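Example record

Each entry pairs one chain with its bound ligand, pyridoxal-5'-phosphate.
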Amino acid sequence: MVKKLFIPGPVNVAPEVFAAMSQPMIGHRMKEYAELHGRIKTSLKRLMMTESRVFLATSSAFGAMEGALRNLVKGRCANFCNGAFSDKWHDVTLRCGKEADAVKVPWGQPITAELVDATLATGKYDSMTMIHNETSTGVLSPLAEIAAVMRNYPDVMFIVDTVSSMSAMPIGLDELGIDCCIFGVQKAFALPPGLAIFTATEKALQRAQSVENRGYYFDFMEFAANDDKDNTPSTPCISLIYGLDCQLQRFFAEGLEARWERHRVMAERTRSWVLERGFELFAPEGARSVTLTSVANSRGVDLAAIKKQLGEKGYAFDDGYGKIKGKTFRIAHMGDLQPAELEEFLTVLDGELKG
Ligand SMILES: Cc1ncc(COP(=O)(O)O)c(C=O)c1O
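Structure tokens for the complex follow.
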């Protein structure tokens, strides 16, 4: 049975995007590819409000997240951790042989500007990583406040994962001073998985040049050299890149402000539903994601049973991630999902909760 996805990625993909992906193949060293790549870069810069380099990597998000560590961490990295993906990023930093500390806050809490300031004031770090929207907990950290603090640490690489927030809300990279922003396309971008997008400022490229053992596949210098020709170091996922071209046009046709507003409306609607049904919101006020709502299972309902029943009705449901599985559940409202579709899902979920 085909299931409609209300999980926090991968998400439902529009038929127009699948149609765009089935265009005839081209070679990535042909001029047709350079035209496609160049057009996409222009659109991505517009979306991210940046003059940074924008690179396309054929991998899931963690490929580019690992690449950022291998290219940008020269001395010691502060990995800010508040959920499963940020915890994993710390683990990956160590696995890359880098010196790093996990700066942890409890799952469900945001990373604060004060914590970033206090950590970096020690002078121990030349890089920091953080996740803007921790998909495991539905927590959104205050990027603008953190960015304001980061201005006091110009030698510290500001590396941010926006996997589940990019395109759902305004994230102006240049204004924020982000050195390297990374996301995969299977969440807020509503594309099939397999492509990661990342950016690098000139400062980041200078750092990369001075770092040893960058490897090949995610070597930022290789990406920069190929970027000059609107190309990629190795063969990219061309079909998915056709889909990205189509999806970016769809974003601009909807209007970025309208897209942000749609997410805000769906998030508010979901939060009200949660409270009206006697559950609690897992994330504190002011740190709640606009792309997914994480719900504390304060009523102690049998989430595994609900997941099974919803699955039989054709809806994919998430019963929590990692160590908070069963204690929380997540309702995703990201990508191209429309308020009417969310309403349909909430009605079906209501039926299960009553039954
Ligand atoms: C915030 C965040 N970062 C990183 C990842 C890992 O992405 P991928 O599985 O594409 O490597 C995810 C996946 O859910 C995520 O939500």
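The domain at 16-252 is CATH 3.40.640.10 (Aspartate Aminotransferase; domain 2).
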